[in-house]
Design goal:
By secondary structure, the protein is mainly β. The chain is built from no helices and 14 strands. The chain has strands at about 5, 25, 30-35, 45, 90, 95, 105-115, 115-130, 140-145, 155-160, 165, 175-180, 185-190, 195-200. It has a six-stranded mixed sheet, with no helix packed on it. The protein has a four-stranded mixed sheet with strand order 1-2-3-4, with no helix packed on it. It is extended and about 75 Å long. The protein starts with a strand and ends in a 5-residue tail after the last strand.
Length: about 200
């Protein structure tokens, strides 16, 4: 059995370069643990500083083309795939508790550097639905963007627990529910030779 462990309790240069607690551990299974001596997956990172900043894994490209996370999967089973998974608990990992209504489960966010700072101005969020519990695991998805002359994101579209699509409506009551805050056309449909618009004011 061969195990490599690197440990230190000192901060090197800044918190960003600190290998803390159990440090870096490569177990006999080949699993790599950062912040844990017992990694459970191929790469297992645990942030121990409760209440401190967000646990972050970053990849930077300072003067090149793209920064890319690449997943590869090979096999002859049609169900094999590359998977992104975000798992949310209440409580702790040691004593997990169920999520509650409207808890944010996972978010995909895109930031941009503008007006002298990094701004988080577009996002997709996954939420627990209204009644999580025994035999009920509802979820919904929202999509946020930032408009012209605006400085913060707003929800623009939502897929509800039952699959209804709301555009400009955070509580869609129909398979497609479109709302706008001013009078006017709310939808346009077209084919190769005609256009049809829908304006609630004209029926």
């Amino acid at each position: 059995t061969t195990v490599l462990t690197v440990s230190t309790s000192q901060t090197v240069a800044s918190q960003a370069y600190k290998i803390a607690y159990t440090g870096l551990n490569v177990g006999s299974t080949g699993y790599v643990g950062i912040g844990t001596a017992t990694p459970l997956t191929t790469l297992d990172i645990i942030k121990q500083d409760i209440g401190a900043n967000t646990a972050t894994v970053s990849a930077r490209n300072d003067d090149g083309m793209h920064t890319k996370i690449q997943l590869y999967n090979a096999g002859n089973n049609a169900t094999f795939r590359n998977i992104f998974t975000g798992t949310r608990y209440r409580g702790t990992f040691a004593v997990p508790l169920p999520v509650q209504a409207n808890d944010t489960l996972t978010s995909f966010m895109a930031d941009s550097y503008v007006d002298g700072a990094v701004r988080s101005n577009v996002a997709m969020h996954f939420f627990a639905g209204a009644t999580p519990g025994v035999g009920s695991y509802p979820t919904y998805i929202t999509f946020d963007t930032t408009g012209n002359s605006e400085t913060s994101r707003s929800e623009r579209m939502r897929i509800s627990e039952v699959g209804y699509l709301g555009i400009g409506d955070t509580s869609p009551d129909y398979p497609l529910d479109v709302a706008r805050t001013t009078d006017g056309i709310v939808a346009e449909f077209s084919d190769n030779d005609a256009i049809c618009t829908i304006d609630p004011d004209v029926g």
